[in-house]
Amino acid sequence: MLHHAGAGPRTPARAWRARALVVAGVCTAALATACGPRSQAAAPPTGGGLSVSYEAPLRGGADERAFLRGRRLPEKVAEDLNRSVRLPGRVQIVGRSCKQNDTPEYDPQTGRITLCYGFIGEVRSMFEADRGSGAVGDTEERTAGVVTETLYHEAGHALLDKLDLPFTGHEEDVADQFAAYRLLGQGDAGRAALLAAADNYDQYAHAAALHGLADADPSDEHAPDAARSASYRCYLYGSAPATGRSKEYRALVDGKRLSKERAGLCEEEYEDLRRGWGRLLAPHAAGR
Ligand SMILES: [Zn+2]
Q1: What are phi and psi for residue 114, nearest 5 degrees?
Q2: How far is the CA of 157 from the centre of ligand 1 (A)?
Q3: Is residue 5 part of a domain?
Q4: Ligand 1 centre and the CA of 173: distance in Å?
Q5: What is the pTM of this model?
Q6: Cα(242) to centroid of ligand 1, in Å?
Q7: pLDDT digits (tens, 9 = 90+) for 236-245
Q8: Which residues contact 228 (CB under 8 A, 6 or more apart)?
Q9: 246 CA to middle of ligand 1, Å?
Q10: What residues form DSSP beta bridges with 214?
């Protein structure tokens, strides 16, 4: 395999974020959960493709599982990708209670994307704490947005792996760009999801700063959370037509989370990622 050669589980996204949260004390009982038996499974595709299953929640997690299932967040991502991409192998999205930390991950050995119930509770608690800050958006909607962005990020790893796609640079950046690529093609709901993810990265960066932690380990393959947020804001800004940008888009360039200088590059950055992912996936389009 070109990517992840000899690797075990793909280093989880937000690995550092989870460490920061433990220190910050934001994670609660979710960290004490353990993995349990599978209670049910959605029918997998007959050939390759993505499928979804849920394991029984253990010691909490029932609300989070109901949240996922009620909104069909994993199912919608799986359906979107199965409609548009022909995968030679199977990728299973599994909702579960996790044993140690609640970081989402893609494991190339098993073809499994794990979404921990505790992660959903963790994100929701951060948005609830943020409610008084004048932040825009409903807590549940923003939480759903982060979960959807996370699923697309992990699916990006899965596509790079299963389709053996060539790329340069950090795979984590490429997976973030895939999430932006899909979400920015989904109208207002997709843009809101990407903005919620950007906001959530800022929250983690802020929580780290409050506790005297650096935003990232310099050797971590993930970009610092504040940088991931800036890139998502940049793609949001760059995807809007340059003429007649609405107030909402202009507000993304606040000089702190996204500088005016970077904003000047964003239209090109977004076009590069849109064209790049479009070209990577074209030979694998469903129905070809
Ligand atoms: Zn990742």
Answers
A1: -100, 130
A2: 7
A3: no
A4: 8
A5: 0.85
A6: 30
A7: 999 987 666 7
A8: 176, 198, 201, 222
A9: 32
A10: none
Measured between alpha carbons, how far is 86 from 83 in angstroms, rounded to an integer?
Answer: 8
pLDDT at 19: 38
Q: In this model, does residue 28 exceed pLDDT 60?
A: no
What is the 187 CA–ligand 1 centroid distance (Å)?
24
The C-alpha angle with vertex 117 and arms to 136 and 29, in degrees rounded to 5, equals: 95
Question: Residue 6 falls within a domain, yes or no?
Answer: no
pLDDT at 244: 64
Model confidence band, residue 119 (pLDDT cutoffs 50, 70, 90): very high
Please, which residues have CB less than 5 A from ligand 1, an ion?
13, 172, 175
pLDDT at 45: 54
Distance 152 CA to ligand 1 centre (A): 10
pLDDT for the residue 3: 28
How many Cα neighbours within 13 Å face the side chain of 19? 11
| CA–centroid distance, residue 239 to ligand 1 (Å) | 23
Number of domains within the chain: 1
- Ligand 1 centre and the CA of 132: distance in Å? 31
The range of the structural domain enclosing residue 141 comes to 15-284
> 11 CA distance to ligand 1 centroid (A)?
7
